[in-house]
């Protein structure tokens, strides 16, 4: 069995357990660390705790549970998050303040601490660096995900491996996602923070499934340093590639999704302007439903772009549709040239791509999302019952 993610990294061991809706994962790796967190003001207890603990720039382990978000749980929830770090610290023999913690699941419910304590003790007995451990660990943190999410970038001098969960409540400024990223590169805390923030901005913050921003989003990156010092520029590019893979997997596995939707915006005055337009198009319910119905109603793309708050001349816009192989023009410099038969054919597969050129600059950005189906309503209409 080949490695797919974090256990390919020197210095990482892991394990996980899933019992019904309730899972627990442990990852043991010592090194400099950085984190990014949800922009939601109603931050879950683990987020509040980790925003403090990550300031030291070092972690020894991570504990994460699924089934209960421990969000909107007040002081008790915060104390429960601390208890999770104590369970992991005790089981692994590390300082409690150097344990990362994350939770995902239903908001407004308290953790079952006896269950978590028992699961933690069981999982800690069998931490390994095997490919099987990767699978157990990622499955332990899944909720409505249909597929486990692994990413692995192997360079000559270092490796980056990561797992993630995420399917619904996904919007820019991260989504309901947990991401645990590891590298054996030797890199100091400050450049690691800068690299993670830059990678997040161009990947996780450009994914939209449903437009809701979660209370529990967290991405933690730990560098064990066991492969030695690396070129910072090369490392940053590799980290972005790793996060991009996870972001695309999250978008493709959106709740109820049948198609991955990718939107690239070119010809923008600034990169963030391009990203803003791309996110608005990705988030549009009208665009998403048209993609689901394989209806080449490309005018919805133009309409969404026009309300993004970015200035451009609609008469200078060009637009293409693609299935990842063939690319068909729909508009060229404001002139309609669409072949709707070919456009519809490009929507039959599992991936639909729109390339939009604003004709207003030289910058570009890409965002990812999915179609909107009846299954999404079914999943979320009865999420807690």
TrEMBL record:
Which InterPro entries is this protein grouped with?
Answer: Arg_biosynth_ArgJ (IPR002813), ArgJ-like_dom_sf (IPR016117), ArgJ_beta_C (IPR042195)
Report the active site residues: 176 (nucleophile)
Q: In chain numbering, where does the site feature Involved in the stabilization of negative charge on the oxyanion by the formation of the oxyanion hole fall?
A: 104-105
The residues forming the signal peptide are: none
Where does the chain bind substrate? 143, 165, 176, 255, 380, 385
Looking at its record, which EC class is this enzyme?
Answer: transferase
Pathway field: Amino-acid biosynthesis; L-arginine biosynthesis; L-ornithine and N-acetyl-L-glutamate from L-glutamate and N(2)-acetyl-L-ornithine (cyclic): step 1/1
Instruction: Cite the Gene3D superfamilies for this sequence.
Output: ArgJ beta chain, C-terminal domain (3.10.20.340), L-amino peptidase D-ALA esterase/amidase (3.60.70.12)
SUPFAM superfamilies given in the database record: DmpA/ArgJ-like
Share an example GO biological-process annotation for this protein.
ornithine biosynthetic process
Name the Enzyme Commission number(s) assigned to this protein: 2.3.1.35
Please give the catalytic activity noted in the UniProt record: N(2)-acetyl-L-ornithine + L-glutamate = N-acetyl-L-glutamate + L-ornithine
Q: Which UniProt keywords apply?
A: Acyltransferase, Amino-acid biosynthesis, Arginine biosynthesis, Autocatalytic cleavage, Cytoplasm, Transferase
Kindly report the protein's main subcellular placement as a broad class.
cytoplasm
Question: Where does this one sit in the cell?
Answer: Cytoplasm
GO cellular component terms listed in the entry, alphabetical order: cytoplasm
Give one Pfam family, short name only: ArgJ
Q: Where is this site: Cleavage?
A: 175-176
Molecular-function GO term, any one: L-glutamate N-acetyltransferase activity, acting on acetyl-L-ornithine as donor
Assembly, per entry = Heterotetramer of two alpha and two beta chains.
Q: Which NCBIfam families match?
A: ArgJ, PRK05388.1
Functionally, this protein is described as follows: Catalyzes the transfer of the acetyl group from N(2)-acetylornithine to glutamate, forming N-acetylglutamate and L-ornithine.
The UniProt entry's sequence similarity note says: Belongs to the ArgJ family.
Protein name as it appears in the record? Glutamate N-acetyltransferase
Give the source species: Methanoregula boonei (strain DSM 21154 / JCM 14090 / 6A8)
Please name the taxonomic classification of the source: Archaea, Methanobacteriati, Methanobacteriota, Stenosarchaea group, Methanomicrobia
